[in-house]
Amino acid sequence: MKSLVEIYDTTLRDGAQAEGINFSAQDKLRIAEKLDAFGVHYIEGGWPGSNPKDMEFFQQAARRKWKHARIAAFSMTRRKGVAVENDELMRLILEAKTPVVTIVGKTWLLHVTEVLRAKPEENLGMIGDTIRYLKDHGKKVIYDAEHSFDGFADEPEYALATWQAAEKAGADCIVLCDTNGGRLPREIAAATALAKSKLNCPVGIHTHNDCGFGVANAIAAVEAGAMQVQGTINGFGERTGNCNLISVIPTLQLKMGLNAVPKSSLPKLKELSEFVNEVANVRHDVRAPWVGQTAFAHKGGMHVHAIERVARSYEHVNPESVGNFRRVLVSDMSGRTNILLKARELGYQLSTDAPETRAITDQVKELEARGYEYEAAEGSLALLIGRTMKHCEPSFTVETYHVSMRRDKKESICEATVRIRVGDEIAHTVAEGDGPVNALDGALRRALVKFFPSLKGIELTDYKVRIINGATGTAAKTRVLITSSNGKREWGTVGVSENIIEASLEALVDSMEYALLKK
Fold first, then answer.
1. How many angstroms separate the Cα of 369 from the Cα of each of 297, 332, 380, 455?
2. For position 57, what pLDDT does the model report?
3. Residues 422, 429 contacting (CB under 8 angstroms)
4. What's the pLDDT score for residue 1?
C-alpha cells in the first residue's frame, strides 16, 4: 500500500440532515461502534447544543473505549462581535469532551459580506481565534473551509487567506468543502493542488453530490494531494447527499493502492452499507456500486458465457473483495450458460448438451413472454428447474380456494378459505386478514403447518404488483413478486394472471414449496 488517506465519517451529523433520516442517540452509538470496528479514522457525532440527542451521544461516547476511530464534535467559528472565550458555542464544544473538534468557517467572500455581514478581516479573525482557543484546550482541530471552491473561483486570494489563517492558528488539517456540490472534477483538482502547494498542513476534501460528482470530486482531490476524505455511508446527506464513502473506500484501496481502512475490513463493506441502511430504515439500493444486489449480476448470455471462462472479463474486481457475490440472472435474454450456472447455484448439475438444459431455456423464454420474470424469483426458478429434471414433485396441491370481503359495521373484513391435499389427506382452513392476499396467506399457512411444522417460521417480507399490459385496462395481466424469509435467508417467487388473487396465490404456493425444497 502507498500513503495513508484518512477516512472521516460524518453520517451521524451531515448524513442525519438528509430528508427522511432520523437517528436516535442509541442509533448513533450503534453506527459509531460499527464504523469503529470497520476502521475509519474519525467519526463525527454531531453538533453539541443543536439538539439533546447529540449531547446524549457525546456523553455516552465519552464513557466508551474506541479501538480505531477518534470521535469528533462539530461546530462553527466564534460569532461575529463575540470574544471566543465568551461564546456559548465554545463552551458546548468543550463539554462534548471529544479529542477532535471540527470547525466550519467562511471561505467565500459572498458569504462573509452578504450572509455573515462581516468585514473580510473580521472573518479571518474569527477563524484564527476559534482554532487557537481550541488548540489551547488540547484539541485536535480540523478546519472545514465551507464553500472553498466557489470562494476560490470568485476571489482566489481571499480564499487562500482564509486557509492560511487557519493554518497559522494551528489547524491540524484544512478540509476544502464543495458545499454546493456544483464544481467539476478538474476545478476540484486545480484548487486542491494549489492549496497543497501553499499550505504546510494536510489538506482534506468534503464534497456533495448535487451534480452526481461527489465521489469523482473526492477522488480528483486525492489525486491532487488531499490526505483526508470526508463523507457518509451510502451517501446520506442534505439535498442529493454527500460523498459516498462506500464507493470511495474501495476505490482508494483497490483502484489506487492507497491505505484507507484495514485490509481485513474491506470484505465487510457490503455488510456495513446494509447495516446503516437498516438502522436508518432505508431500503437498500440494489444498483449501488460495489455493494448493490445487481453490482455483480450478469444477464446477457454473452456476458455469462465469458465470466464462466474468465470472471474478470466482465467484472472490474472480485465481488468477494467487498463482501458481495456474483449473480447469474435468468430471463428471455438468457443463453444456456445462464441456465447451467443458475442450476449449479441452486444445487442442480446440468450439462450443456443435456435435453433438460434446452427444455428449461425454452420454457423460461416462453414464460417470460407471458409476463413471468425470474431475475428476482429464484424460488420459482428453482422449482421450474427441479420439475423439468423430475427431481421434485409438489409437496401439496391447492384444490380450491375462496376469498371474500364483508363489512361489519364500519370495518371491512377479508376472509379466505383454502382446501389443500397432501398425499391422501385433506385440510380445509379459514383465515381473516388485513386484505385478500393477507387472508389467503394466513389460510394457506394454517393448512400447511399441520403437515409441515417447519413452515411456521416462514414470513412474507415484501409484496410487489406490476401491471404488465396496462392498455387492456382492468383485464390487464398482473405480475406478483413475493419475497419470503425463514430468518436466515430470503427468496423470491412470482405469479402471473389477469386475476391478482390468482397471481398472488401462485407466488405464495411457490414460496411454500421452495421453503420445503431440499437441494
1. 21, 7, 16, 32
2. 95
3. no
4. 44
Q: Which residues make Cβ contacts (< 8 Å) with residue 322, sequence separation at least 6?
A: 250, 266, 267, 269, 270, 290, 291
Quote the CA–CA distance of 4 and 492 in Å, as a whole number: 43
Residue-wise DSSP of 148-209: HHHHHHH-HHHHHHHHHHHHHTT-SEEEEEETTS---HHHHHHHHHHHHHH-SS-EEEEEB-
The model's pTM: 0.72
Instruction: Decide: residue 371, CB within 10 A, 0-12 exposed, 13-18 middle, 19+ buried.
Output: buried
Contact 244, 232 (CB under 8 A): yes
The percentage of the chain sitting over the pLDDT mark of 90, rounded to a whole number, equals 66
Q: What local confidence, expressed as pLDDT, does residue 12 receive?
A: 97
Phi and psi at residue 496, in whole multiples of 5°?
-135, 135
HEC readout, 281-344: CCCCCCCCCCCCCCCCEECCHHHHHHHHHCHHHCCCCCHHHHCCCCEECCCCCCCHHHHHHHHH
> Taking all residues of the chain, what is their mean pLDDT, rounded to a whole number?
89
CA gap 271, 263 in Å, rounded: 15
**How many CB atoms are located within 10 Å of the residue 302 CB?**
11
Instruction: Report the C-alpha gap between 432 and 30 in whole angstroms.
Output: 39
pLDDT, residue 519, reads 47
Task: Report the amino acid identity of residue 133.
Answer: Y
- Reported confidence tier of residue 177, pLDDT bands at 50, 70, 90: very high
Q: How confident is the model at residue 331 (pLDDT cuts 50, 70, 90)?
A: low
